[in-house]
Write a structure and sequence with these properties.
The protein is mainly alpha-helical and 103 residues long. The chain has one domain. It has 7 helices and no strands. It is globular and about 35 Å long.
Length: 103
Amino acid sequence: MQRTQWRSASLRPDVLGISTASASRLVADTYRLSESRGKEWELALLFVRLFRSLDAIVGPGEKARAWLKNDNVVLNARPMDLMRSAQGLVNVVGYLDAYRIRI
């Protein structure tokens, strides 16, 4: 994923379970995620899966950002708000996976 996409996605450290400093280093390409850091690795994989699904469903850029920021009736919240917790991220990815099956 390009660095600009990370920034435009309003990458929040809590989405990946990392510190604000680590998120800044990640965006600056001076920090690498590693499988040895179990939780952040798994959350990062879900995060990437979420954006790949969004890209397939609504396309990149403004449409994806709008989807994340707007209320979702099925999820009963804004996806961006749900993504603050691991369970919320899993729920958003599950929703997108179910939607992708239909297309």
